[in-house]
Design a protein that fits this description.
By secondary structure, this protein is an alpha/beta fold. 55% of the residues lie in helices and 7% in strands. It has 29 helices and 14 strands. The strands form 5 sheets. Strands 3-5-4-7-9-11 form a 6-stranded mixed β-sheet. It has a two-stranded antiparallel sheet with strand order 1-2. Strand 13 and strand 14 form a beta hairpin. The longest helix has 30 residues. 49% of the residues are buried.
């Protein structure tokens, strides 16, 4: 059995156990663990391709927080003091908010000075959410919102973990207070025996909450990993693990040889997770148990301070220093990573990354000396009421400034010059017969980039596109009323089909069309299995195939629909044959099978060519940060690759009656495909055409319709 290190046992067995402080006193290895945790996170953010699992540093922080906070609250109970909730929360405010609000305000100013205006709304939204400590829920929502999930990372995206911690700090004392109240009930004491003691009740209650959270984490990680990563309930068990370590061992640490080996095993578990986990690891489900267990083992088994033990390494002065400033390092490093490339106008190199590492540490140290320590220990926020007022004023001020940044983004919109430019406004600028001059136009883009980018978060027809998960058909009715329509048409496909809504609505006015929509995020209507490399599970893949089959059958049997328009971002996918039907060429044959089904039912099938690809960056953002719009253009051979499945399928099916809408000349000339044509921005993001450009293409579509 390993020896147990406490003040009492060290006096009884001096030859076996060294005297050392209990958990009620300073444990230097905890500061060392903080240093390890923050280094893992920062190095992962700087070199994600090398330290692929460095994100587990956040989980180490969570366990530390659970351990320390639970230890502190239980000591208050042992001392006979009342569990002062308002005092506890005031201490958290003094400890955390001054530096947090400072970095948020600096990030807000940096966004205004250096970040393109197209990103101001996202930055303001996330800074406001971070000030209110709900950033993790905003990111969880964005992760399932197709219009938001491709947003560029904001300078405060890392505040998601701080939001989780603050929510823990608010709820955990309430849970402990409830458990203590139950423990003091005479009826409970008579029934539960030893469990009715404050410590026993806390252990039982926290174990139950932790187990429930772990089960939920495993289930949700399997179902929706992007949501599971951010939401608080999937992380509660990590705090609970730290809390249980504090309560069960209650100030004791093991210090024998076996304990030292277990402490090294804990370090190894953390290192293994950091080195081998990656973006494809299901997390934070059961895999998070590795860094959580590793952290707990270091707490419990670091009683031996001898040279070369984990405690010795984690107690060295550099580790203690970095642990002391770890909060500030975490706060500062990510804004530097996000903002500096905009300042330098190029991606970060090795030397810039090393500079960020040093600058983050220096800023953290300065912040600790000038902001954190004075406000935490000084008289200004000593009274709880003042601390609460400081928090309220700071949050309100930050949120108000966020509204100001958003307003500034949209106040710079250029005037509408469509009437002035005439045929040279929009795609007409690519027609040599119009003699328009530069394809991109001589005027600044109208609408401005920020307004075009806003279409990503505020779609014209919200709720008219099914989510990637699920097989339910979502359909909307556009155009003229069905009772007044000369024809009912349908538009089917993924979000690229949704992008054609404005064009079809324009045509509907001239042709008295009633439009029915059948679109689903990342899901072309094909009989083949579409593969998207970024997906961590195949659940969306299965749902897409099933949804496409339902749509194909429904439209084939709908006698009111005369024409079906199909569109897809087909170059974003690869295609495989379904289990029950081998295709010679799945990318082409899958589309062809569905279209033949519709043709056999008497429908006309009209297929949009895949739109040209871009650089991969949001086009409005590229335009906002580049002085020359041509820097955002793409050579034709890269913009229109040969693997455009939906285009190739339409070509193959032309002899059978499928009509192909070809708009290459409205996007490209012989050399380039343009981000701006005739002072009109072509794309609202990295692939979807803007609403303005879709409307402007309506006449060109009309000329090609039967």
């Amino acid at each position: 059995m390993p020896a147990i290190r406490t003040l009492e046992t060290s006096r009884k067995h001096p030859s076996a156990v060294r005297e050392a402080p209990a958990t009620s006193q300073f444990q230097p290895e905890i500061q060392g663990l903080r240093a390890v945790a923050v280094l893992l996170v920062v190095l992962y953010h700087l070199w994600p391709e090398r330290l692929t699992g460095g994100y587990v540093g956040v989980d180490v922080f969570f366990v530390i927080s659970g351990f320390l906070i639970t230890s502190h609250m239980y000591r208050e109970v042992q001392d006979g003091s009342a569990l002062g909730l308002t005092r506890f929360w005031a201490r958290r405010i003094r400890r955390l908010l001054p530096a947090s609000l400072l970095v948020l305000l600096v990030s807000l100013v940096a966004a205004f000075l250096w970040i393109p205006s197209t990103l101001w709304e996202v930055a303001a939204r996330q800074i406001g959410a971070s000030a209110l400590y709900v950033q993790n829920w905003v990111l969880a929502t964005d992760s399932v919102d197709y219009s938001a999930q491709h947003n560029d990372a904001s300078a405060v995206q890392h505040y998601w973990s701080l939001s989780v911690e603050e929510q823990f700090y608010f709820v955990w004392p309430l849970l402990v207070a409830l458990l203590l109240y139950i423990a003091r009930r005479p009826a409970v004491a008579s029934k539960l025996g030893p469990l009715s003691s404050p410590r026993g009740m806390m252990i039982a209650g926290i174990a139950f909450v932790g187990a429930t959270s772990l089960i939920y984490s495993v289930v949700l990680t399997a179902q929706s990993p992007s949501v599971a990563y951010f939401v608080t309930p999937t992380r509660v068990w990590e705090f609970a693990a730290g809390g249980l370590a504090a309560l069960i061992f209650n100030g004791r640490q093991y210090s024998g040889r076996l304990a030292t080996a277990l402490a090294w095993a804990g370090v190894a578990l953390i290192a293994y997770a950091a080195l081998t986990f990656d973006s494809g690891t299901p997390f934070p489900g059961w895999t998070a148990m590795l860094p959580v267990l590793g952290t707990a083992l270091v707490f419990i088994c670091s009683g031996n301070p001898a040279r070369m033990t984990p405690r010795w390494w984690l107690s060295r002065r550099p580790a203690i220093f970095l642990g002391d400033v770890s909060y500030g390092v975490y706060l500062w490093h990510w804004p530097l990573i996000v903002v500096l490339p905009f300042v330098l106008r190029h991606d970060l190199g090795t030397w810039e990354k090393l500079l960020i590492l040093l600058a983050s540490t220096l800023l953290a140290w300065i912040t600790k000396l000038t902001v954190e320590d004075p406000l935490r220990r000084g008289r200004l926020l000593k009274k709880s009421l003042r601390a609460y007022l400081f928090a309220a004023v700071g949050m309100v001020l930050t949120v108000a400034m966020c509204f100001g940044l958003t307003s500034a983004a949209y106040s710079e919109s250029s005037p509408d010059r469509s009437a002035e430019l005439g045929a040279c406004y929009g795609p007409g600028a690519l027609d040599p017969a119009n003699g328009c001059g530069p394809v991109i136009g001589k005027e600044t883009p109208s609408p401005a980039p920020a307004l075009v980018a806003k279409q990503n978060t505020q779609p014209l027809h919200p709720g008219c596109q099914a989510d990637a998960a699920g097989t339910d058909i979502v359909s909307c009715d556009l155009g003229v009323d069905a009772s007044q329509a000369k024809e009912t048409v349908a538009i089917v496909g993924d979000s690229h089909a949704t992008a054609w809504y404005p064009a079809l609505e324009t045509l509907a006015k001239d042709r008295s069309w009633h439009i029915k929509t059948y679109t689903k995020s990342s899901c072309p209507v094909t009989a083949a299995v579409r593969i998207q490399a970024s997906e961590k599970t195949d659940s969306n893949q299965r749902d897409c195939l099933a949804w496409g089959q339902k749509v194909a059958r429904e439209l084939a049997g709908n006698k009111s629909v005369g024409t079906i328009f199909a569109a897809s971002y087909s170059t974003a996918f690869s295609f495989e044959s379904p289990d029950n039907e081998p295709f010679k060429d799945p990318a082409v044959d899958g589309f062809a099978k569905v279209w033949r089904q519709w043709l056999a039912a008497g429908k006309k099938v009209v297929v949009f060519d895949d739109v040209p690809r871009t650089t991969g960056e949001y086009v409005p953002t590229c335009l906002a940060r580049q002085q020359d719009a041509l820097a955002c253009a793409v050579p034709v051979n890269k913009a229109i690759p040969p693997n455009t499945a939906i285009t190739n399928a339409a070509k193959a099916m032309s002899a059978e009656g499928v009509k192909r809408v070809v708009l290459r000349n409205q996007f490209c000339d012989n050399k380039l495909c343009y981000p701006v044509v005739g002072s009109m921005i072509v794309y609202r993001d990295f692939s979807h055409i803007s609403a303005e450009y879709a409307r402007a293409l309506a006449p060109y579509i009309a000329k090609q319709l039967p």
